[in-house]
Amino acid sequence: MSILEIIKSRRTIYQFIPKLIPLDSLNLCLEAAIWAPNHKMTEPWRFWVIGKETQSELAVIYAENRALKRAEKGSDNYDDIYQKALSKFLAIPQVILVGQLLAKDKVTIQEDYAACSCAIQNFQLAAWEIEIGVQWSTGPIIEDKRTYEILKMESIDLKLIGALYMGYPNCVGKSTRQPIEKVTSYLA
């Protein structure tokens, strides 16, 4: 596929078949990620490839956050939501967390966030080319201080900006975009 075909066909994937992703495929996606443009070559991105033991720890955080958002702790509804969320998170074939090194000034922080976003897009496009789907989540798991504790890091110097849930797609949805004429102005 051409790069434009990959860009146009890529979808966020929410359902995966239970199949492990080979390490060389993960590394290919990470290699694509680190070639993202970044102002002043700051290379602000950091990645954590999560193994099954750590995924089990993160699953508790994920499930608690999901359940607390919808029900009161200790209720039957809470327990039901918690169990479903726990199972859902544990079923994700691969989780990768993405962080951004925090610069000292606001302008660089903004530039670095843009660079990290580009890195994630590169990652997703490389994954899609080898038939791996990705969901970029910015949910509460990346804000929870327990996640930082599991990763043994301080949120002073580094901020988590995404959880990449990835695997071989179970189903791929369709999408459309507005024509460029609706979103573009050509000025003389």
Shape: globular
Q: What helical percentage do the residues reach?
A: 40-55%
User: How many helix segments?
Assistant: 7
> So what's the CATH class?
Alpha Beta
Low-confidence stretches: none
C-alpha end-to-end distance = 35 Å
CATH topology: NADH Oxidase
Name of the CATH superfamily: NADH Oxidase
Written as H for each helix and E for each strand, in order along the chain, the element string is HHEHHEHEHEH
Strand order of the largest sheet: 1-2-4-3
Structure description:
With 188 residues, the protein is of the alpha+beta class. The protein has one domain (3-183): NADH Oxidase (3-Layer(aba) Sandwich), CATH 3.40.109.10. The protein is built from seven helices and four strands, in the order ααβααβαβαβα. It has helices at 3-9, 23-33, 52-70, 76-90, 106-129, 145-151, 180-183, and strands spanning 45-50, 94-101, 133-137, 158-167. The chain has a four-stranded antiparallel beta sheet. The longest helix is centred in the middle third of the chain and has 24 residues, at 106-129. The two termini are 35 Å apart. The model has no long low-confidence stretch (mean pLDDT 96). This is NAD(P)H nitroreductase YdjA.
Q: Can you tag this structure with a few keywords?
A:
single chain; 188 residues; alpha+beta; NADH Oxidase; four-stranded antiparallel β-sheet; 46% helix; globular; oxidoreductase
